[in-house]
Structures are given as C-alpha cells and as structure tokens.
Design a protein that fits this description.
DNA-binding; alpha+beta; DNA damage; single chain; nine-stranded mixed β-sheet; globular; archaeoglobus fulgidus dsm 4304 fold
Amino acid sequence: MVVTPELNYDQLTLGEATLIQQQLRGHLRLEPFQKEIKTIAGADISLTLYSETVFAGLVILSYPELQPIACSLVQSSTIFPYVPGYLAFREIPAILKAYEQIPVKPDLIMFDGNGILHARRMGIASHFGVVTGAVTMGCAKKKLAGQYAEPGASKGEYANVTDKGEVIGYAVRTKENVKPVFISPGHQMSLEDSLAIALKCTGKHRLPEPTRYAHEYVNKFRTGEIKAGYHDLSSWKLF
DNA sequence: GCGACAG
DNA sequence: ATCTTGTCGC
C-alpha cells in the first residue's frame, strides 16, 4: 500500500492531482501475476445527470466460469468533475467504499477505464491498485492515449497501443465486427497478463463479463431495482 | 496554437 | 456518464 493523505480528492486542483499520479507511479508493479485466479471482479459506477450522487459497485464472478457470485453496492457523492486523465479522482472514493464492504476480496479487479494506458501511466485501475495493493487491470471503451493500428475484424484479434515508443496496452476485438475495447494492466500484473485475462473473460458481448455485469448491476442499483449493501448471489444455486 | 480527450 | 425510438445487420 501507499501513503495517501485522506481521499480529499474533491478539493484537489488538477496540478495537485497530477503530482499524486506521479507519486503513485513510483509504486506501480507490473510483474507477472503468479497465483491461480479463482474470482475476478468488475468495478463501475452509475451517475444521475446533473447530480453529485454516485452509485458505485463491484460484482464478483467465479473464474473461469464467469458466473456472478456476489456484489457490493454503495451510494456516495463527488464534486470532482470529469476531466480526461483524472477519472480516478472522481470515481475511486466511491468504489473504495464498495470494495471495503466486501468480506472476502476477489483475486483481481477489472475496471471500466484504463490501467497504464494513460498519459502518465496512472489510469483509474493503476491508481486503485497502488492505493489498495489489489491486483487490477483496465478495460476502456474508447482510446484515451497512444496510437494503434486497427486490429483484424475477427474476435480475439488485437493490436498494440503505443505511446512514446512503449506498448501501454492493446486494442482488442472482443466480438466480430464491433469496435475494439482497450485493455491494459493496472497493478500487480503484466501487459501480457491483462491481454490473456481479457480474452478469457470475453463472452457473447463486446464488454468482458466482469465490467459488463458491473455496469448492469450499478445501473439496477441506481434505478432502485437492487438495494445498497453486500449481496451473495450464488447461495440459492446450492439448493 | 491545434488536435485529442477513459467515464 | 445520462437523456432516448426505431432500425440496420449478423
């Protein structure tokens, strides 16, 4: 873990936020992930237009089955604006609350955003990983930084995303004839790990199962279909 | 100055 | 991100 003042992110200036990102970058670890993966979580937030209310959540899936087994939902608020490159300061406080509420932490977390595929190599997935010590990776729907050549149209094809001469992630075709998603390691895993895991989490949709379910659940949470708290989603299957 | 720009 | 209907394509 790392020294982080209070998460007074709401009061930070972009200059201060940049300094925090540069400091956190010094703690990034991208060594290959060794252990066996048994659970993987998807993290995401849902917002209401013109409101500072944030509906955050994580959905834990079994791996490699990719079946939802639990979810943690929390309502929070933020006044930090959305600024490309600083998404972490707007979403992490809320996601952290939902994460702390989980009794048994997942082996790794996939975020709806980037890991090191970021101008300063400190996207939301990397930021959360360094702050909590968790194993993380990113999966964004649009390119934030770098350049890439359009990958082949078949599912599973991919292309490197490079920036200043280094590979910082991949543009991955998770479904035939659909726009690619952008994969990158967040913390405690290698570039290759992130790509391999993303491909194994691909189902019938463009978004990998972890983030797809996370998006679905936080949205149901925002509309009132599901209540806040930690919910076990698999016990009923035992009967 | 110009273009790019996760959610 | 969110507000929204039908519609084209696999």
